[in-house]
Amino acid sequence: MTRRILAVAFVALVVLAGCQSPAVTGGDPAETTTAPATSDFDYADPAGDALGWEGGYWHNESLPVTVGDGLNETEREMVVNRSMARVEQLRGIEFQKPVSVDVISRSTYREEYAGSGNASDAMETFDNVKFEALFLVGEQNDSLAVQDSNRGSNVLGFYTPRDDRIVVISESETPTIDENTLGHELMHALQFRNFNANFSSATRDQSNAHNGLIEGEASFLDSQYSERCGVEWECATPEASGGGGGSSDIHRGIYTMSYFPYSAGSAFVEHVHDAGGWDAVVDVYDDPPASSEQVAQPEKYGSDQPTDVSLPDRSSDDWERVTPGGRAPYGEVGVGGLTAMFGYTYYEQNRHPQSAVLNPLDFDANGNIDLSSPFDYATQPVAGWDGEQLWVYENGDDTAYTWRLAFDSSGDAREFAQTYRQLLQYWGAQERSDGVWRIPENESEFADAFRVTRSGDEVTIVNAPTPDDLGDVHSR
């Protein structure tokens, strides 16, 4: 059994490293928009259901709505119909029936939708250790709760294929709708209605690969939508819109990891679209990317398949593998997770950015956010990634892991190993004479022992509570 996509969400681009979140052009929020965007356009209703027209409104038509005081039910219906017409016009696909759109508050979203549900003990242990291995969440914290908090603060809206329904989150007491968010989610409705978009994903890497197509297409389209707002189109979006529940609430490392499908995915779809138009994008649904690497480096799509990594169990009888149900028994985070692992050292608040392993000049657009693709997930030392397996172990209350990563060449593997050792040093690790690394208890929340070895194009990392435990978790 594999994990299936239950909802596709649109998240805000938060302020990172002093870069600004995207501004949304919507005119004076207190004004009523009445003037047509194109004066010589014939706004008469068509004889049938024309492309670029929905529910009585053309894609370039102005609406008699007042944005500043929120949208009442009648105004929301007008905005939704016009947004459907606009997505049709941009994407060239007709909505055969309306899409239900609900607007809720952020507090309601946090209470009803942002949680992880009732995870099993095995799933909680597995996820905690995986995020500890990425140096994102310490072993004293609940990784699922941290991810829930991120979603609660940063999701702007989502589409549920099962219900064929969009939920938009309003930041104000009076309901408002960000048209960019609405356009993004309407694109999801077209995807799941017209394409084979309900992929099964057994690992984080597979999920990022599949969502790189789904979220990438929606993000590529909503960037075109946003470019027209205030230029060709009048948009019923408040000036202050475009943010989530507060970037100060965001765990920047997990955010970087979760933003992969939007950032790398948008660039991937743009690459495919430039080569063959929307028809080429549709073809990708029949042969989706096999790894997040293929999304981050589109030239590898269809040619550079990930390696089937093998990591046998060499633990003693005291240590047992933790294998949660409903997904692959091992972890695989791919280039999105590895970039977050190294990049988080810049955003982590309790240490010194000057000693960061990666800084924004390395993995975002030269320190200035490119709104369509803000992070470079193909930067060294992860560009040569070719596959991985991360296995979680437990022995009573103690946990450990083994992690093997394959790369395209021995040089790529060497560079990753060197950068990983820098990461250990960042978190306070000291190297012993036998090549084992140890983070002291009082140095950071990731106090443990580590053994890092390279053999050809593979790097193997063994983690255990103490150096003496390393051989019991994975014998040489």
What's the arrangement of secondary structure elements?
Layout: E1 3-4, E2 8-11, E3 53-54, E4 57-58, H1 73-91, E5 100-105, H2 106-112, H3 121-133, H4 143-154, E6 155-160, E7 165-170, H5 179-194, E8 200-201, H6 204-228, H7 252-258, H8 260-284, H9 292-296, E9 320-322, H10 334-347, H11 360-363, E10 385-395, E11 398-407, H12 410-426, E12 430-431, E13 436-438, E14 449-455, E15 458-464, H13 470-473
Parallel strand pairs: 5-7
Antiparallel strand pairs: 1-8, 2-6, 3-4, 6-7, 9-10, 10-11, 11-15, 12-13, 13-14, 14-15
Helix pairs in contact: 1-5, 2-4, 5-6, 6-8, 6-10, 7-10
Characterize the structure shown.
This protein has 2 domains: 3-300, no CATH class; 312-327 and 381-476, Protein Transport Mog1p, Chain A, CATH 3.40.1000. The chain has helices at 73-91, 106-112, 121-133, 143-154, 179-194, 204-228, 252-258, 260-284, 292-296, 334-347, 360-363, 410-426, 470-473, and strands at residues 3-4, 8-11, 53-54, 57-58, 100-105, 155-160, 165-170, 200-201, 320-322, 385-395, 398-407, 430-431, 436-438, 449-455, 458-464. It is elongated. The protein starts with a strand and ends with a helix. 35% of the residues lie in helices and 15% in strands. It is built from 13 helices and 15 strands. A 7-stranded antiparallel beta sheet has the order 9-10-11-15-14-13-12, with helices on one face. Residues 1-6, 15-38, 241-246 and 365-369 have low confidence and may be disordered. Helix 5 crosses helix 6. With 476 residues, the protein is α+β, with helices and mostly antiparallel strands.
